[in-house]
């Protein structure tokens, strides 16, 4: 998809430039929240964070530091999107959705994911996006939509690293929907992987 807005690479350099301006004292009058910038090291760390880490950030020994970084990234992304009047690459919204999901800010995560969904024509190829969207729908008990998103993840990437988690959530949702046969079938698939892949539920 051809973008007519700001790219992630452009944003990265914008974050650096903003940081340099701050260091030079050119933005003394701006508020602290609007002037936060990301260092190259922080951008590198953020590059490896997406919905697949949901539930594991708080278990990690650097969880508090990571959450602080995620909060900073959300402020930076929101500021850049505002400055660009929303004309940014769709990947911005996907990343923003991931960051908000990891911070367990579900309304903002849903908003960002929906924006990505509306802008990206081949959204269905992005398993991490579908997984994140499914988690948000699951949180809101929108099981019909969560089931659809999770099934699409398994279709796009059958060996998805959180497949066990998906199977367990699908089993639970089918059970709630009184589709016991599907619940048993899907749940059994999830339990067959218990010893091999970590899961938030177990």
Automatic annotation (TrEMBL):
It is an enzyme of class 1 (oxidoreductase). One of its GO terms (cellular component) is MLL3/4 complex. The keyword Nucleus applies. Its cofactor is L-ascorbate. Keywords: Nucleus, TPR repeat. The keyword Nucleus applies. PANTHER family: HISTONE DEMETHYLASE UTY (PTHR14017:SF25), LYSINE-SPECIFIC DEMETHYLASE (PTHR14017). SUPFAM superfamilies: TPR-like. GO terms for molecular function: chromatin DNA binding; histone H3K27me2/H3K27me3 demethylase activity; RNA polymerase II cis-regulatory region sequence-specific DNA binding. Its main location: nucleus. It catalyses: N(6),N(6),N(6)-trimethyl-L-lysyl(27)-[histone H3] + 2 2-oxoglutarate + 2 O2 = N(6)-methyl-L-lysyl(27)-[histone H3] + 2 formaldehyde + 2 succinate + 2 CO2. It is found in: Nucleus. GO terms for biological process: heart development; regulation of gene expression. Belongs to the UTX family. TPR repeats lie at residues 127-160. The lineage of its organism: Eukaryota, Metazoa, Chordata, Craniata, Vertebrata. Its EC number is 1.14.11.68. This is [histone H3]-trimethyl-L-lysine(27) demethylase.
């Amino acid at each position: 998809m051809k973008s007519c807005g700001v790219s992630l690479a452009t944003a990265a350099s914008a974050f650096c430039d903003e940081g340099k301006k701050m260091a030079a004292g050119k933005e003394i009058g701006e508020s602290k929240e609007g002037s936060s910038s990301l260092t190259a090291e922080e951008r590198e760390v953020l590059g490896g964070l997406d919905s697949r880490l949901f539930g594991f950030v708080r278990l990690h020994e650097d969880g508090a530091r990571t959450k602080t970084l995620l909060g900073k990234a959300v402020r930076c992304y929101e500021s850049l999107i505002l400055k660009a009047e929303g004309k940014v690459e769709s990947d911005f919204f996907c990343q923003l959705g991931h960051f908000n999901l990891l911070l367990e800010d579900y309304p903002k995560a849903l908003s960002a994911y929906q924006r990505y969904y509306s802008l990206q024509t081949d959204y269905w190829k992005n398993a991490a996006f579908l997984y994140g969207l499914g988690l948000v729908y699951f949180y809101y008990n929108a099981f019909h939509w969560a089931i659809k998103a999770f099934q699409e993840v398994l279709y796009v990437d059958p060996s998805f690293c959180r497949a066990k988690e998906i199977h367990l959530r699908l089993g639970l949702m089918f059970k709630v929907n009184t589709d016991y046969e599907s619940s048993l079938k899907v749940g059994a698939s999830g339990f067959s992987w218990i010893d091999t892949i970590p899961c938030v539920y177990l």
